[in-house]
Structures are given as structure tokens and as C-alpha cells.
Amino acid sequence: MWDYNARYQNLMHNRHLEEATTDLGLKDPAVFEKCLGVDDCYVDFLKFFEDEITQNGMEEVVKEYLFKGDARANDILGRMFTDLVHPIIHLGCGIEFKQPSLVAEALAGACVHENWPKSFLLATEEYVRTQEDVPSRPMLDILNSLRENPQIAGGVRETDPFNKIPDGFLKRVTTEQLVPYLSQFQVKPEKEDLQRKMADMMHTTAYMLGAAQRPGKREAMDFVLLHAVTLAVFYPAILAQDWLSDQDKARLLEATARVDAVMYAGCACPPLYAQRITDYVPRHPEHGWPELFHRAIVYRDEGHAAKLIRALYSLEQLDDPTPGFPITKHDFFQIAHMGMDSIERALHKTEGNKVPEETAAGVVKRVGRGGDMLVGNMTRWVFYGGLPKAWDYVPGCSV
């Protein structure tokens, strides 16, 4: 995997060594704020958070810069969920495996990203605080309600830029339209409710990914929705941290599920077909979890396959989904088979997904370094799967 992905990496160590000693003065709140969202400040933020962790410890830095509740912490918390939630995925990895350097990298990465989640996250929290009798509903019910709203379900378009959620969907769908739905995912700062809502989120995001299929098209997974699943896997470890308060755990869990819901809506609210999961016939039905893990580890991509199988396997530790949920616990194993089958088959020379050569060449030319990696993902996965054209490269089937 390392060798496969080395070709598009940017060297950082030279600048890290030469310029990290140049102190921008990030301890000054005004300078810190000025540098937020600036890519060129990444190395400076990284050095800043490394120093903060060395001085104060990983736990105190996370509490200070994400959960303090002041303007700076609220700002960084929102940025954690940009770029397909990669900063908070990295944070979860750092927390679960007790890697302070990864926590520093996650915080630095968040700080140089834009902050489109902040507006609806803070507005939703305020709505819950100030409105009476806001209902608390299962996450799947919230997704279904979003799909039933034509303005929200139609809020993203084929012609939108590639980053369709901030650059298309959130240009048309307002915070005021989203908040009444997002506010319905609520978590009490109590251990029992934390565990219950965590399971709800983990089950629902996995179901959302597996069931978001297209009638008449072969099975494929949505790359955007995939990240909701690969983030959810870290929450058993996050909720197990005794240095985080139940209030902070509840807030983070609420924010995560609300961002997941916006990502679903930003994918054009694809209809969810439980039967595509329950009726799925694996290509290798004799394979169990060990074989699926092996296939994911040796699969040549940038790690999404392995992260997906690990995330789905983590559901084995949970209880069964709540009564009335569209699928059973065993069906998450079906989704794992479907995921590996679909991305392996996608790259088959004759039976695979077909990205036109001119399209691939255009992506490589536009993106430059890393363009071939993006073309690979366009071949393996669909993007914004509620839009019909997302499935153009996927062969048809009789289902």
C-alpha cells in the first residue's frame, strides 16, 4: 500500500525542518485566527500543536482546542468535519491508538480547511437549547424525512462543482431549512444514551452506504457516504476515554450524526433499498471476516477498502439493531462482501466500471499530482449517488 501511494505524495520534511523554527506567533489569538483556512500554514499549525501536546499532553490539548466551548474551539470543531470528515477520522485514529502525533496532525489539518459545517452545527445546537419539545428520533427516520423534502432532496445538481456539498448543496439549502431535521438527533450526556445513540449512528451509516444502490445498475458504494462509516468506527474508543466528559462525548456524537445527515442530503438523498443488501449473493460466499480482511489489505488503493472492512467488522461488537430496523446484524456482513466485490470487480479489464479515457485524462491534467489516484476512486466508487449521472460508469444489471 505504501509503494502504491508514494508516487503522489508531497514532500513536507524539508519545509518542516527549515521553516518550523520560524514562529508565526500562533499563540497570539489574532494570528491564530488569521491563519485559519490557509493551506500554507499547515506546517506551522503542525509544529504548534506538537509543541502544545509536548507541553500539556494530548488529552488537555484536545479539550482546549475542540471542547472548551469558546469561539476558537467551536471554529476548529466545525473544521474537523470538512474534506469528507478526514480531520476527525485522523483524530479518532490518534485517540484510539494513543498517537499524539496523529492528534497534532488532525488538529493542524482541520485548521487549514474551510469551515462550512460550523454554521449548521452551531445553529442546530442553539435551536435545541431554545426551542421547546424538539423531538428526538432515530437517525434513519431523519434521513427519510430529509429525502421527503423536495427542496432538500433536490438541493444538489449534476452541474455543481466537484465538492458538491459546500459548493452546490449548501448554496441552495439554507441552515434554517436543515436545522429542524438535524436537531432531531439528540444525545443525553448519560452513558446508556451515549451507547444507544452511538449504535444507532453506526448501524444507520452502514445501512445507508450498503442500501444506496441504483435500480438497474450493478452494486457500487458511494465514496462520500463511505466516510460516514469509516468515521463511525472510532466512536467506541472515543466514548471509552475517561478524560472526556459525557457532555463532550454527547456533543461530538451529535455533531457527527448531523454532518452524516448533511452528507446524505448532499448526495441527493439516494433512496435506500434494503433488499439489495438482504438478497445480495457474494462472489465468494465461503469467505468469512478473515478472508475479507485479507482481500482488503492486499487490494491496491489508498486504504479505503481496509478501513471499510474494519468499520463493518466493528458492528459485530454491538447488539442487534433496534426492532423495525430494515436489516439484521448478519446483513452488515453482506455489506462487507458487497463492498469488496464491487471494488474488485470495478477494476476488471472487461467487466469493470468504464471511465472514458478522455474523462480520465482530463482529471489527471486538471488535478496534476494525485490525479490518477482520483481516477482510480472514480472507477471503484460512485460519487453523490443520488444523482443519476453518478452511475454512468457502472454496468447495468437486472435488479
From TrEMBL:
<keyword id="KW-0560">Oxidoreductase</keyword>
<dbReference type="GO" id="GO:0016491">
    <property type="term" value="F:oxidoreductase activity"/>
</dbReference>
<keyword id="KW-1133">Transmembrane helix</keyword>
<dbReference type="Pfam" id="PF14027">
    <property type="entry name" value="Questin_oxidase"/>
</dbReference>
<keyword id="KW-0812">Transmembrane</keyword>
<keyword id="KW-0472">Membrane</keyword>
<dbReference type="InterPro" id="IPR025337">
    <property type="entry name" value="Questin_oxidase-like"/>
</dbReference>
<feature type="transmembrane region" description="Helical">
    <location>
        <begin position="223"/>
        <end position="244"/>
    </location>
</feature>
<protein>
    <recommendedName>
        <fullName>Oxidoreductase AflY</fullName>
    </recommendedName>
</protein>
